[in-house]
Amino acid sequence: MTTAAPHIAPGARYRLARLPRLLSLGRHPRTARLEQAHDQWLRAHYPFATAHERERFLSHRSTLWTSVCYPATDDERFHDLSRLTSFLFAFDDLFLSAGTTNRRQAKPALDDSLRVLDGRPPTTPHGTALAGIRDDMSRRMPPEQRCRLTAAVHDFSRGCDAETAARSGTVALDFDGYVRLRTEQSLAAWVYFVLTEYAAGVALDQETRAALRPLHLACAEHLLFANDLFSFRAEHFAGDHINAVCVLTRSGTELQESVDRLVSLVATREHRVAALLRASADAAGPDVRRYLTALEHVVSGNLAQARFAPRYHGTTAFIGRPIEAGTVTLGPDRTAYQPEE
Fold it and tell me: Structure pTM?
Protein backbone atom coordinates (compact mmCIF):
# COMPACT_ATOMS: atom_id res chain seq x y z
CA MET A 1 0.00 0.00 0.00
CA THR A 2 1.35 3.42 -0.95
CA THR A 3 0.93 6.73 0.83
CA ALA A 4 -0.62 8.57 -2.13
CA ALA A 5 -3.11 11.22 -1.10
CA PRO A 6 -6.65 9.92 -0.60
CA HIS A 7 -9.26 11.81 -2.62
CA ILE A 8 -10.87 14.16 -0.11
CA ALA A 9 -11.60 17.34 -2.01
CA PRO A 10 -12.13 20.81 -0.52
CA GLY A 11 -15.78 21.12 0.46
CA ALA A 12 -16.18 17.43 1.28
CA ARG A 13 -18.65 16.90 4.08
CA TYR A 14 -19.86 14.19 6.41
CA ARG A 15 -22.34 13.68 9.20
CA LEU A 16 -20.79 13.28 12.64
CA ALA A 17 -22.81 11.05 14.96
CA ARG A 18 -23.07 11.78 18.67
CA LEU A 19 -20.33 10.22 20.82
CA PRO A 20 -20.91 8.79 24.31
CA ARG A 21 -19.81 10.78 27.37
CA LEU A 22 -18.95 8.29 30.09
CA LEU A 23 -15.82 9.88 31.55
CA SER A 24 -15.45 12.76 34.00
CA LEU A 25 -14.39 16.03 32.36
CA GLY A 26 -12.79 19.03 34.06
CA ARG A 27 -11.13 22.37 33.36
CA HIS A 28 -8.36 23.94 35.41
CA PRO A 29 -9.81 26.77 37.52
CA ARG A 30 -6.86 29.11 36.89
CA THR A 31 -6.56 28.58 33.14
CA ALA A 32 -6.51 32.26 32.15
CA ARG A 33 -3.60 33.17 34.42
CA LEU A 34 -1.66 30.01 33.60
CA GLU A 35 -2.18 30.49 29.87
CA GLN A 36 -0.72 33.98 30.17
CA ALA A 37 2.38 32.63 31.95
CA HIS A 38 2.79 29.92 29.32
CA ASP A 39 2.51 32.40 26.44
CA GLN A 40 5.09 34.70 28.02
CA TRP A 41 7.50 31.77 28.30
CA LEU A 42 6.84 30.70 24.70
CA ARG A 43 7.53 34.18 23.33
CA ALA A 44 10.75 34.46 25.32
CA HIS A 45 12.23 30.97 24.92
CA TYR A 46 10.90 28.84 22.05
CA PRO A 47 12.97 29.38 18.86
CA PHE A 48 10.34 29.87 16.17
CA ALA A 49 11.81 30.60 12.75
CA THR A 50 9.74 33.77 12.34
CA ALA A 51 7.50 36.02 14.41
CA HIS A 52 4.59 34.99 12.16
CA GLU A 53 5.12 31.31 13.04
CA ARG A 54 5.23 32.19 16.74
CA GLU A 55 1.97 34.14 16.60
CA ARG A 56 0.30 31.44 14.52
CA PHE A 57 1.26 28.85 17.12
CA LEU A 58 0.03 31.06 19.97
CA SER A 59 -3.30 31.43 18.18
CA HIS A 60 -3.78 27.66 18.59
CA ARG A 61 -4.03 28.18 22.38
CA SER A 62 -2.38 24.86 23.18
CA THR A 63 -2.63 25.58 26.92
CA LEU A 64 -6.31 24.70 26.70
CA TRP A 65 -5.26 21.07 26.08
CA THR A 66 -3.41 21.09 29.40
CA SER A 67 -6.36 22.76 31.08
CA VAL A 68 -8.88 20.05 30.19
CA CYS A 69 -6.43 17.14 30.42
CA TYR A 70 -4.85 18.10 33.77
CA PRO A 71 -7.57 20.14 35.50
CA ALA A 72 -6.59 19.17 39.06
CA THR A 73 -2.79 19.53 38.99
CA ASP A 74 -1.05 22.31 40.91
CA ASP A 75 0.07 25.50 39.19
CA GLU A 76 3.78 24.66 39.02
CA ARG A 77 3.15 21.28 37.44
CA PHE A 78 0.60 22.84 35.08
CA HIS A 79 3.27 25.31 33.91
CA ASP A 80 5.70 22.44 33.30
CA LEU A 81 3.11 20.36 31.47
CA SER A 82 1.81 23.19 29.30
CA ARG A 83 5.33 24.18 28.24
CA LEU A 84 6.37 20.61 27.48
CA THR A 85 3.15 19.95 25.56
CA SER A 86 3.67 23.07 23.47
CA PHE A 87 7.28 22.04 22.86
CA LEU A 88 6.07 18.69 21.51
CA PHE A 89 3.26 20.29 19.48
CA ALA A 90 5.67 22.80 17.95
CA PHE A 91 8.10 20.04 17.05
CA ASP A 92 5.25 18.12 15.46
CA ASP A 93 4.36 21.21 13.41
CA LEU A 94 7.99 21.63 12.40
CA PHE A 95 8.25 18.13 10.97
CA LEU A 96 4.76 18.19 9.46
CA SER A 97 5.35 21.42 7.56
CA ALA A 98 8.90 20.59 6.51
CA GLY A 99 9.89 18.85 3.31
CA THR A 100 12.50 16.10 3.27
CA THR A 101 15.39 18.59 3.16
CA ASN A 102 13.99 20.68 6.00
CA ARG A 103 13.37 17.58 8.10
CA ARG A 104 17.04 16.69 7.73
CA GLN A 105 17.94 20.21 8.80
CA ALA A 106 15.62 19.91 11.82
CA LYS A 107 17.19 16.61 12.89
CA PRO A 108 20.04 18.25 14.88
CA ALA A 109 17.46 20.07 17.04
CA LEU A 110 15.62 16.81 17.67
CA ASP A 111 18.85 14.98 18.52
CA ASP A 112 19.89 17.77 20.88
CA SER A 113 16.50 17.68 22.59
CA LEU A 114 16.89 13.96 23.22
CA ARG A 115 20.38 14.55 24.66
CA VAL A 116 18.94 17.25 26.93
CA LEU A 117 16.41 14.77 28.29
CA ASP A 118 19.33 12.41 28.96
CA GLY A 119 20.75 15.12 31.22
CA ARG A 120 23.36 16.63 28.93
CA PRO A 121 23.81 20.37 28.22
CA PRO A 122 22.03 21.84 25.18
CA THR A 123 23.78 22.82 21.96
CA THR A 124 20.83 24.30 20.02
CA PRO A 125 18.13 26.89 20.82
CA HIS A 126 15.53 24.10 20.91
CA GLY A 127 17.63 22.17 23.39
CA THR A 128 18.08 25.29 25.51
CA ALA A 129 14.31 25.81 25.70
CA LEU A 130 13.77 22.20 26.69
CA ALA A 131 16.58 22.29 29.28
CA GLY A 132 14.72 24.96 31.25
CA ILE A 133 11.60 22.78 31.38
CA ARG A 134 13.69 19.71 32.29
CA ASP A 135 15.40 21.52 35.16
CA ASP A 136 12.11 22.76 36.60
CA MET A 137 10.49 19.33 36.37
CA SER A 138 13.52 17.61 37.88
CA ARG A 139 12.92 19.40 41.16
CA ARG A 140 9.53 17.72 41.44
CA MET A 141 9.94 14.43 39.54
CA PRO A 142 11.55 11.34 41.14
CA PRO A 143 14.69 10.08 39.33
CA GLU A 144 13.09 6.77 38.32
CA GLN A 145 10.14 8.60 36.81
CA ARG A 146 12.50 10.90 34.91
CA CYS A 147 14.23 7.84 33.45
CA ARG A 148 10.90 6.40 32.32
CA LEU A 149 9.89 9.73 30.78
CA THR A 150 13.18 9.92 28.87
CA ALA A 151 12.80 6.35 27.62
CA ALA A 152 9.24 7.07 26.48
CA VAL A 153 10.32 10.19 24.56
CA HIS A 154 13.12 8.22 22.87
CA ASP A 155 10.58 5.58 21.84
CA PHE A 156 8.26 8.31 20.57
CA SER A 157 11.14 9.68 18.47
CA ARG A 158 11.73 6.25 16.92
CA GLY A 159 8.03 6.08 16.11
CA CYS A 160 8.24 9.45 14.39
CA ASP A 161 11.11 8.12 12.27
CA ALA A 162 8.92 5.18 11.28
CA GLU A 163 6.12 7.61 10.36
CA THR A 164 8.55 9.54 8.18
CA ALA A 165 9.34 6.32 6.31
CA ALA A 166 5.62 5.74 5.82
CA ARG A 167 5.16 9.27 4.48
CA SER A 168 7.96 8.74 1.99
CA GLY A 169 6.37 5.54 0.72
CA THR A 170 9.25 3.29 1.75
CA VAL A 171 7.03 1.56 4.34
CA ALA A 172 3.48 0.40 3.56
CA LEU A 173 0.85 0.74 6.27
CA ASP A 174 -2.55 -0.93 6.36
CA PHE A 175 -5.04 0.13 9.03
CA ASP A 176 -3.95 -2.41 11.65
CA GLY A 177 -0.29 -1.58 11.06
CA TYR A 178 -1.04 2.09 11.36
CA VAL A 179 -2.83 1.60 14.68
CA ARG A 180 0.05 -0.50 16.06
CA LEU A 181 2.66 2.09 15.06
CA ARG A 182 0.73 5.00 16.49
CA THR A 183 -0.45 3.46 19.76
CA GLU A 184 2.85 1.80 20.59
CA GLN A 185 5.22 4.61 19.62
CA SER A 186 4.47 7.72 17.61
CA LEU A 187 1.29 8.92 19.35
CA ALA A 188 3.26 9.91 22.48
CA ALA A 189 0.56 8.30 24.63
CA TRP A 190 3.20 6.55 26.75
CA VAL A 191 4.94 9.88 27.30
CA TYR A 192 1.69 11.30 28.62
CA PHE A 193 1.00 8.32 30.88
CA VAL A 194 4.23 9.17 32.70
CA LEU A 195 3.31 12.86 32.70
CA THR A 196 -0.07 11.94 34.18
CA GLU A 197 1.73 10.40 37.15
CA TYR A 198 3.66 13.66 37.44
CA ALA A 199 0.46 15.73 37.24
CA ALA A 200 -1.12 13.63 40.00
CA GLY A 201 2.00 13.77 42.19
CA VAL A 202 2.42 9.98 42.29
CA ALA A 203 4.97 7.45 41.03
CA LEU A 204 3.60 4.06 40.03
CA ASP A 205 5.73 0.99 40.70
CA GLN A 206 6.48 -1.59 38.02
CA GLU A 207 3.90 -4.07 39.30
CA THR A 208 1.13 -1.47 39.18
CA ARG A 209 2.12 -0.31 35.70
CA ALA A 210 2.05 -3.91 34.46
CA ALA A 211 -1.42 -4.41 35.94
CA LEU A 212 -2.64 -1.21 34.26
CA ARG A 213 -1.29 -2.08 30.81
CA PRO A 214 -4.68 -3.19 29.38
CA LEU A 215 -6.14 0.12 30.56
CA HIS A 216 -3.23 2.07 29.07
CA LEU A 217 -3.66 0.30 25.72
CA ALA A 218 -7.37 1.14 25.67
CA CYS A 219 -6.56 4.76 26.58
CA ALA A 220 -3.91 4.97 23.84
CA GLU A 221 -6.41 3.79 21.24
CA HIS A 222 -9.03 6.25 22.50
CA LEU A 223 -6.50 9.08 22.26
CA LEU A 224 -5.52 8.00 18.73
CA PHE A 225 -9.01 7.60 17.30
CA ALA A 226 -10.32 10.79 18.94
CA ASN A 227 -7.38 12.81 17.59
CA ASP A 228 -7.61 11.37 14.09
CA LEU A 229 -11.36 11.90 13.86
CA PHE A 230 -10.95 15.65 14.34
CA SER A 231 -7.40 16.36 13.10
CA PHE A 232 -7.48 14.71 9.68
CA ARG A 233 -8.75 17.82 7.86
CA ALA A 234 -5.69 19.85 8.86
CA GLU A 235 -3.29 16.99 8.21
CA HIS A 236 -4.81 15.99 4.87
CA PHE A 237 -4.78 19.48 3.39
CA ALA A 238 -1.22 19.96 4.68
CA GLY A 239 -0.19 16.90 2.67
CA ASP A 240 0.16 14.54 5.64
CA HIS A 241 -1.98 11.43 5.18
CA ILE A 242 -0.69 9.35 8.09
CA ASN A 243 -4.05 9.45 9.82
CA ALA A 244 -6.69 6.75 10.41
CA VAL A 245 -9.31 8.44 8.23
CA CYS A 246 -6.83 8.91 5.39
CA VAL A 247 -5.54 5.34 5.70
CA LEU A 248 -9.13 4.08 5.35
CA THR A 249 -10.08 6.34 2.43
CA ARG A 250 -6.83 5.45 0.68
CA SER A 251 -7.92 1.81 0.73
CA GLY A 252 -11.16 2.71 -1.07
CA THR A 253 -13.51 3.36 1.85
CA GLU A 254 -15.82 6.34 1.38
CA LEU A 255 -15.30 9.36 3.64
CA GLN A 256 -18.62 8.93 5.50
CA GLU A 257 -17.96 5.24 6.10
CA SER A 258 -14.44 6.00 7.32
CA VAL A 259 -15.72 8.64 9.75
CA ASP A 260 -18.46 6.28 10.97
CA ARG A 261 -15.84 3.63 11.67
CA LEU A 262 -13.75 6.09 13.71
CA VAL A 263 -16.84 7.18 15.65
CA SER A 264 -17.58 3.53 16.42
CA LEU A 265 -13.99 2.93 17.53
CA VAL A 266 -14.01 5.97 19.83
CA ALA A 267 -17.34 4.87 21.33
CA THR A 268 -16.12 1.30 21.88
CA ARG A 269 -12.91 2.51 23.54
CA GLU A 270 -14.86 4.98 25.70
CA HIS A 271 -16.91 2.10 27.12
CA ARG A 272 -13.79 -0.05 27.59
CA VAL A 273 -11.81 2.71 29.30
CA ALA A 274 -14.72 3.47 31.64
CA ALA A 275 -15.08 -0.20 32.58
CA LEU A 276 -11.35 -0.70 33.15
CA LEU A 277 -11.10 2.47 35.22
CA ARG A 278 -13.88 1.22 37.51
CA ALA A 279 -12.33 -2.23 37.84
CA SER A 280 -8.84 -0.81 38.51
CA ALA A 281 -10.11 1.66 41.12
CA ASP A 282 -11.93 -1.05 43.06
CA ALA A 283 -8.64 -2.72 44.00
CA ALA A 284 -6.45 0.40 44.22
CA GLY A 285 -4.90 2.35 47.06
CA PRO A 286 -5.18 6.15 47.32
CA ASP A 287 -2.16 6.98 45.12
CA VAL A 288 -3.30 4.73 42.31
CA ARG A 289 -6.86 6.05 42.56
CA ARG A 290 -5.49 9.58 42.27
CA TYR A 291 -3.59 8.52 39.15
CA LEU A 292 -6.70 6.86 37.67
CA THR A 293 -8.72 10.02 38.19
CA ALA A 294 -6.01 12.02 36.42
CA LEU A 295 -5.88 9.48 33.59
CA GLU A 296 -9.65 9.68 33.15
CA HIS A 297 -9.30 13.46 32.76
CA VAL A 298 -6.58 13.04 30.13
CA VAL A 299 -8.74 10.76 27.98
CA SER A 300 -11.92 12.83 28.30
CA GLY A 301 -10.02 16.11 27.99
CA ASN A 302 -8.19 15.04 24.85
CA LEU A 303 -11.50 14.31 23.12
CA ALA A 304 -13.05 17.53 24.41
CA GLN A 305 -10.09 19.57 23.14
CA ALA A 306 -10.09 17.82 19.75
CA ARG A 307 -13.66 19.05 19.24
CA PHE A 308 -12.55 22.71 19.43
CA ALA A 309 -8.77 22.74 18.80
CA PRO A 310 -7.76 25.69 16.59
CA ARG A 311 -4.73 23.69 15.37
CA TYR A 312 -7.16 21.10 13.96
CA HIS A 313 -9.96 23.33 12.75
CA GLY A 314 -8.20 26.52 11.63
CA THR A 315 -10.40 28.75 13.78
CA THR A 316 -11.03 29.64 17.41
CA ALA A 317 -14.80 29.64 16.80
CA PHE A 318 -15.31 26.21 18.34
CA ILE A 319 -13.67 26.97 21.70
CA GLY A 320 -16.99 28.12 23.08
CA ARG A 321 -19.11 25.92 20.79
CA PRO A 322 -17.33 22.57 20.29
CA ILE A 323 -18.20 20.27 17.41
CA GLU A 324 -20.79 17.72 18.49
CA ALA A 325 -23.26 15.83 16.32
CA GLY A 326 -23.99 17.49 12.98
CA THR A 327 -22.63 18.16 9.51
CA VAL A 328 -18.91 18.87 9.15
CA THR A 329 -17.51 20.49 5.99
CA LEU A 330 -13.79 20.29 5.25
CA GLY A 331 -12.02 23.32 3.82
CA PRO A 332 -8.31 23.69 3.10
CA ASP A 333 -7.99 26.38 5.77
CA ARG A 334 -10.74 25.59 8.27
CA THR A 335 -13.59 23.36 9.38
CA ALA A 336 -17.23 24.41 9.01
CA TYR A 337 -19.89 22.88 11.25
CA GLN A 338 -23.66 22.84 11.27
CA PRO A 339 -25.08 21.41 14.53
CA GLU A 340 -27.71 18.73 14.41
CA GLU A 341 -31.15 20.17 15.14
Answer: 0.93
